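Deliverable D5.2: sample structural annotation.
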Amino acid sequence: MTSLLRRHRKILSWVAGGCVGFFPALALCADLAPVSCLIEPRDIVKLSTPVSGVVASVAVDRGSRVKKGDEIARLDTALEEVALTRARLRAKDRAEIEALETRITFLTQQADRTAQLAKRNAVSSTAADEAKLDLALARSELSRALMNQQLAVLDVRRAEAELQQKIVTSPVDGVVTQRLLSPGEYREGEAHIATIAEMDSLVVEAFVPISYFGQIQIGQPVQIRPEAPLDQLHPATITVIDQVFDAATATVGIRMALPNPDLVLPAGLRCTLYFSTNN
């Protein structure tokens, strides 16, 4: 029993030290030695406009912090705004539909009266048939009017989409690293206009000795200490462990996710990676 307890404590000490092995043959260390690492942006986004146009305004500059959905730049949208206003007016116009609905109500009553008179031979059957025909034509016109209104609603969506193409917004939370346009410039479609580094979650890259493989795992918490003057410990999580080793250096690449919701940490920093929480 004493031997079993000692073995159990040993396993717990290995797990607490950050090693992944749960058996004496696999758990090779209690604390893996720290290694150098590099903090990088999660992604670099190069923004462009899908259409050509004259730049009307630019809302950011190099170094500006932006949130997802913030406006970066806007091309001249005068024509698109007019088209959208017209489309919305057409979509709201129900005058033709209401007139046809009123006409159908009248023609329905007229057709019913004519049919009753025809039964009593007060009017010819031809008059009753003409009343039915007028009602059918009015209903057909109403169906066409309803279809036109649905098309008008789609025209509104198209006009909104065309207007939105002239407005460039940030797809991520980050920092503007390049601004390549100014108001008054003409930009061709798909031209690069700005670059944003996604910074709300940073990526930490490191190379560790091959001997670490099998002792670290995806999802394992680690600690990152950036270089001075930002040399405080920050929690991160291993997200990638390369399955192809570098034979020349006897190392394996790993990647960690480092949360940075307030954009406190900049990217491009060297750092130290610790596998134990006791540093």
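Annotation notes: Confidence is low (pLDDT under 50) at residues 1-30. Helices lie at 2-16, 78-92, 95-119, 125-164.
The annotation will be released with the project's public dataset once the embargo ends.
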